[in-house]
Specification:
The complex is a heterodimer of chains A (422) and B (111). Chain A is of the alpha+beta class and 422 residues long. Helix content of chain A is 20%, strand content 21%. Chain B has 4 helices and 2 strands; from the N terminus they run ααααββ. Chain B has a two-stranded antiparallel ribbon. The longest helix of chain B has 18 residues. Classes of the chains: A alpha+beta (422), B mainly alpha (111). At the A-B interface, β16 and β19 of A face α1, α3, α4 and β1 of B.
């Protein structure tokens, strides 16, 4: 099996195909600290792409309550368990998170889903460790997560206050998910028809419906379970990253690359999506003032979801700061502690970049900061806080300014009717 | 709808799992939401309504466990920092020669 460079793992790894990298890569950052599970993203995607007969169970975008839920149910627990069974006690990280682009989270010393498959599966044609979820696991997104039905001990009655069951007595958080458009897609690796391909211009992973014969190898292989089978067409389908919008061919975009529907619909403003430049070796080329590059490689507040699976996912998350660290380290890797430290005490530049989230539906390719005077100094949660009247300016693909954000002290003007009121 | 007695053999049966957590974790979650939404420019009333509404289970759970007064204190603490200023977003100029950028939206207002 060929080897490819996986910078998220800090090492080379086995992958069924030789490495080929796109010019740019579709990528996104979700700030979990802001997500309230309003499901606006879920419904935006559903009403755009998966509203047809045979797609009833399909949620390309979903928000699930961790650690209680998942869609399909237990997707992450199951694949983690499979990996642990294949490589008992050795799914660990070594080294220390560093500054470089090549091994920012240290080195993963365990096995990826590709490496475990080579050792644990037969026949040789089995390329990826995975499983096929049952119909029951697919059919009820969010069931028993935090949508309860009645009070404990009271049957056949809904709670009349709207709070229907005893709530979870401990921590939880909301995990918004779409296809990660991985750099080394497991779905692509597993497809015996070669019906799945990664676009060279933007790294979006697409499934060719005319080539698909519905073997569901992709469904079995994707560790994030974001490829789904459609019974009435007998083919599989997956998130297409709203590619007409990303291309700028959507009529609304006027030729400018736009963010996807799920990003645009996010009322919590947790999401930013863009295109990052890929270097010849498959790492992110240095692009200091691309906001995604800044969040992942400079501020180091955004981390990949389950990087140990080995697909090099392109979805990044600012981890929830209240959740116990061992759980977060399993989910986002060893960079968690630094990410939370940096997001609790945001730098001047990070505070400015966080203001870029959801101010426009156009893809931001570059930002600039015009520094202003300090306007506040104090403390919050026992930490020093300094705020500056900086102006952060976002630029689109062609270098045109999309918008700028700045701060002003509020001015309250009395209406004429109450001009002399006290 | 789980109105029947538990059936351990049923793969759809809810399995209760207790995980470590305490009031400090809930308080941290509440403070995180307050900080984030204060940074986004929501008003005191808007942020408090987020906690009061049962639809937003995470925030609402904190409201139930900590109480209205404590949540209000947490929100005020965040707004004392991030709610001091009005954040203004100005869209870039249209591609028309001579056009001037105008503030189109006032997205953030301090309490």
């Amino acid at each position: 099996m060929p080897t490819v460079k996986n910078w998220q793992l800090g090492r080379d790894m086995a992958y069924p195909y030789d490495a080929r990298y796109p010019e740019r890569q579709f990528a996104f950052v979700f700030n979990i600290n802001r997500c309230i599970a309003c499901q606006s993203c879920t419904m935006a995607c559903k009403s755009t792409w998966t509203f047809s007969k045979g797609q009833e169970h399909m949620w390309w975008a979903n928000v699930e309550t961790k650690p209680y839920g998942g869609y399909p149910r237990w997707w992450d627990v199951k694949i983690l368990e499979q990996l642990e069974t294949a490589n008992p006690g050795a799914q660990v990280w070594g080294g220390t998170p560093g500054d470089g682009r090549l091994a920012p989270y240290g080195t993963f010393e365990g096995q990826t889903i590709f490496e475990a498959a080579a050792r644990a599966l037969s026949p040789d044609s089995a390329r990826v460790l995975g499983y096929l979820p049952t119909d029951e696991e697919w059919n009820s997104p969010n069931i028993y997560e935090d949508n309860p039905v009645g009070k404990r001990g009271v049957r056949n009655a809904l709670d009349d206050t709207g709070v229907q069951l005893p709530v979870h007595k401990t921590w939880f958080f909301y995990l918004a998910r779409i296809c990660n458009h991985c750099s080394y897609p497991a779905c692509l690796a597993a497809c015996p028809r070669k019906a799945i391909y990664k676009r060279p211009e933007d790294g979006i992973v697409l499934l060719d419906q005319s080539e698909c014969r519905g073997y569901r190898k992709c469904v079995e292989a994707c560790p994030y379970k974001k490829t789904m089978y459609r019974g009435n067409t007998r083919t599989s389908e997956k998130c297409i990253a709203c590619y007409p919008r990303v291309e700028g061919t959507d009529p609304e975009s006027n030729g400018e690359p736009m963010e996807t529907r799920c990003m645009e619909a996010c009322i919590g403003q947790i999401r930013m999506q863009g295109l990052v430049t890929i270097a010849e070796d498959g790492t992110w080329a240095e692009d200091r003032y691309n906001p995604l590059y800044f969040l992942v490689h400079v501020a180091k507040v955004a981390l990949p979801l389950y990087p140990q699976f080995g697909t090099q996912p392109n979805g990044y998350y600012i981890p929830p700061r209240w959740v116990p660290r061992p759980y977060l380290r399993q989910m986002f890797g060893p960079g968690v502690d630094l990410a939370i430290e940096n997001s609790i005490s945001p730098s001047r530049e990070l505070l400015a970049v966080l203001q870029l989230f959801r101010r426009s539906n156009r893809i931001i390719f570059r930002y600039e900061i015009e520094e202003g005077p300090k306007i506040y100094e104090g403390s919050l949660h026992g930490r020093k806080v300094e705020l500056y009247n900086d102006t952060v300016i976002a630029f689109g693909k062609d270098g045109r300014e999309l918008f700028r954000t700045t701060v002003e002290e509020p001015v309250h003007v009395r209406s004429n009717a109450h001009a002399n009121s006290i | 709808m789980s109105y029947h007695d538990p059936e351990p053999e049923d793969p759809q049966e809810l399995v209760g799992v207790e995980l470590p957590g305490d009031e400090a974790v809930t308080r941290e979650m509440a403070a995180t939401f307050a900080d984030e939404f204060a940074q986004l420019g929501l008003t005191r009333i808007q942020i408090l309504s987020l906690y009061r509404r049962a639809e937003y289970t995470g925030a609402h759970q904190a409201w139930r466990l900590l109480g209205e007064d404590e949540i209000a204190r947490i929100v005020d603490e965040s707004l004392a920092v991030y709610g001091r200023f009005v954040w203004v977003v100005t869209d870039g100029p249209e591609e028309v020669a001579g056009s001037v950028a105008q503030p189109l939206r006032l997205v953030r207002r301090g309490s």
